[in-house]
Specification:
The strands form 3 sheets. A 4-stranded mixed sheet has the order 4-1-7-6, covered by helices on one side. It has a 3-stranded antiparallel sheet with strand order 3-2-9, with no helix packed on it. The chain is built from 1 helix and 9 strands. The radius of gyration is 16 Å and the shape is globular. About 10% of the residues lie in helices and about 35% in strands.
């Protein structure tokens, strides 16, 4: 039998909306994951899980407000990348956050930092981020 078939199996990857947020100095905002979380203690670009029925844009706006207290303005897609960890597969849907309102802070008590792009390599990130 030839031809293609549609994959009717649900996607088992954890779909994550991620924001790369840059300030007026060109620095990038990163946040430290809580020790109790998957990949805990590592730094990350803020974001979170896309919930069922939610668009990536909606998820990104919700997550960045929940985590950082900011409201996103203009955003644009940057890259989609998948990574297989031993215990889970993730799909990172990464977006540039071109502007936002509010002053970011760690609403969940997570440390956050504005870091020059050239210094990002000095922070340990989950493998999926590289």
């Amino acid at each position: 039998m030839s031809g293609s078939t549609l994959n009717t199996e649900p996607d088992q990857r954890l779909h994550v909306a991620v924001g790369v947020i840059r300030n007026s100095n060109g620095d990038i905002l990163i946040a430290k994951r809580a020790e109790v979380l998957h990949q805990g203690g590592l730094w990350e670009f803020p974001g979170g899980k896309v919930e069922p029925g939610e668009s990536v844009e909606q998820a990104l706006g919700r997550e960045l407000f929940e985590e950082l207290g900011i409201k996103i303005g203009k955003i644009s897609p940057l890259i989609k990348t998948s990574h297989a960890y031993p215990d889970r597969n993730v799909l990172l849907d990464v977006w540039w956050v071109e502007n936002f309102s509010g002053e970011p802070y760690g609403k969940e008590r997570q440390p956050i930092r504005w870091v020059p792009v050239t210094q990002l390599k000095n922070y340990p990130f989950p493998e999926a981020n590289w």
